[in-house]
Amino acid sequence: FRRAHTLTVLFILTCALGYVTLLEETPQDTAYNTKRGIVASILVFLCFGVTQAKDGPFSRPHPAYWRFWLCVSVVYELFLIFILFQTVQDGRQFMKYIDPHLGVPLPERDYGGNCLIYDPGNETDPFHNIWDKLDGFVPAHFFGWYLKTLMIRDWWMCMIISVMFEFLEYSLEHQLPNFSECWWDHWIMDVILCNGLGIYCGMKTLSWLSLKTYKWQGLWNIPTYKGKMKRIVFQFTPYSWVKFEWKPASSLRRWLAVCGIIFVFLLAELNTFYLKFVLWMPPEHYLVLLRLVFFVNVGGVAMREIYDFMDDPKFHKKLGQQAWLVAAITATEFLIVVKYDPYTLTLSLPFYITQCWILGIILVLTWTAWRFFIRDITLRYKEIRRQKQEHRHEKDKCLSNGERHSALLDEPNGNKPWERKL
User: Fold this and answer.
1) How far is residue 217's CA from residue 275's CA, in Å, rounded to a whole number?
2) Which of 125, 230, 265, 411 has its CA 20 to 30 A from that of 340?
3) Burial 362-381 (b: 16+ CB within 10 A, else e)
4) Cβ-Cβ contacts under 8 Å for 272 (sequence gap 6 or more)
5) How far is CA 297 from the centre of its chain?
6) Which pTM was predicted?
7) Residues 320, 307 contacting (CB under 8 angstroms)
8) Enclosing H/E stretch for 407
9) Do 151 and 206 contact (CB within 8 A), yes or no?
10) Is 309 exposed, middle or buried (0-12, 13-18, 19+ CB in 10 A)?
């Protein structure tokens, strides 16, 4: 049925596109015709994929919605591969086909500078430093971390990623001026207010979703209009609820998987800043926002597929297709950054930053070795020793009971103690 439906939709779409091209006179603009042909090809592929792609773990609001984002992932990955194989100048100028205002080097905004919370030298507005930092990225941080919390569904992992990214900004501010911020901008505005409040609201939403009763009823079986409207709104909530219990310290496999998830999250966050730096895109450009919307939709599916694969590997024998695509997209974006601006990436870290990262890596490796190797060996040795002591105690107890029993049997016969011992 789906195959027949797909062929029907493709036939109608192809006829419509052909009818449009026949009605109008083809312009003599090669760039315009190329752009229009690429867009039409993408639309046909998306139409095919929405009905033919494999269903993911989500079924609300409709499985076709998530199949659409899976196909968008394929298109975006192909676009990244195309950009990767261009020269630096051609790749930057190619962005002009998407937006004529792109392809021009833009200065980065420095969020550092004067870090006084209260500036007594400015009598008109002594708190001007705070108001200067309150731009459109403040609500973006809040909503971003609210949605990331809905994807990860774990308070500790969200806080670790949030704090780790601030350390990355400290470490890489010599490469990107955009990372240079005041200390209170890092820890008060970002970690506590924007990220922390977004994580808190996200956890409250997760708590509400976990307590919600998931009992679905057909729309036309609901008698009241209020009930129908409520059912339509609830169509955009999950079909059923799965609580994520990552348990990173339960096994070495889960610990490595959680570390890999955190690493990919941080790399994807860094790609956001480095891509707009090497491709000359302003931070407020709509392509940056579309990329974030894209990752919100595909990231939720990828996290669910990763958790299912970790939690029940017998049923989910392979990692999901969306998870593999997200990993490939993140890696391709990083390769583009490496190719387009290797000089910026090879700027050496300050010595004290290098020392801090080496110390942190040593601590993580030490804890990993202690938790999953040394501690297990120690616990196994203690358990074996305890079992041997219990076995020896039971054996001594049996021997003592046996001697007492033999003594009671020998005394009526008049045997002496030294004879019983022999």
Assistant:
1) 46
2) 265
3) eeeeeeeeeebeeeeeeeee
4) 288, 291, 292
5) 11
6) 0.82
7) no
8) helix 375-410
9) no
10) middle
